[in-house]
Write a structure and sequence with these properties.
199 residues; alpha/beta; Helicase, Ruva Protein, domain 3; Dna Topoisomerase Vi A Subunit, Chain: A, domain 2; 2 domains; five-stranded mixed β-sheet; 7 strands
């Protein structure tokens, strides 16, 4: 049987998504072929709109369709407390909590020598600028409890040592080597409540 090169390219494209293996990518490829033209066009339109309309908030790095995100614009939020996250998607677990009303800062990654990501590649300078500008009194480091996440948290804690700001780390609680996006709200809430000072 002749190889379907265009289908193979489609399957390879789906495999580039996180957590999508060969079998799942294959099912997605065949499912797309089963769609009628209107469904395919709607899918393409949705992808195109998301890519053109959604961007990072220039202040905190969260995803937004507005000039600034709704959290940064909200004067009722406590701008003196800031949770620092590796990725924008990690914010949703914190926003489900009823007892956190502070703001966020997204680093856009973690320090990783394996992947060639250094501190200069992250949004650390933007965080330093926000501290005096917004009157931030506490930084809560909420990077994932992986080797890279811990390295990033310790680096940030070190450069904030001489700043007039309290630096804490989420309590664990959170499984070592885990990812925040897969953690339930109760575990997140307990980790936030029991956060510890970083010396």
């Amino acid at each position: 049987m002749k190889e379907l090169r265009s289908l193979n390219k489609l399957i390879d494209a789906f495999k580039s998504f996180p957590s999508i293996g060969s079998k799942t990518a294959e099912r997605m490829g065949y499912s797309l072929l089963d769609m009628d033209n209107e469904e395919v066009n709607n899918l393409l339109k949705a992808i195109s709109e998301a890519k053109s309309e959604i961007h990072a908030c220039p202040i905190c790095g969260l995803l937004t369709e507005d000039e600034e995100c709704s959290i940064c614009k909200n004067q009722n939020r406590d701008h003196s407390v800031c949770i620092v996250l590796s990725y924008a998607k990690d914010v949703y677990n914190f926003e489900k909590l009823e007892n956190y009303h502070g703001v966020y800062h997204v680093l856009n990654g973690v320090i990783s020598s394996l992947h060639g990501v250094g501190p200069e590649d992250l949004r650390i300078n933007e965080l330093l600028e926000r501290i005096p500008k917004e009157g931030i009194k506490e930084i809560i480091l909420a990077t994932n409890p992986t080797l890279e996440g811990e390295t990033t948290a310790l680096y940030i804690a070190r450069i904030l040592k001489d700043k007039n700001v309290k630096v804490t780390r989420l309590a664990y609680g959170l499984p070592a080597g885990g990812q925040l996006e897969y953690v339930d709200e109760l575990t997140i809430e307990k980790a936030l409540d029991n956060r510890t000072d970083i010396k």
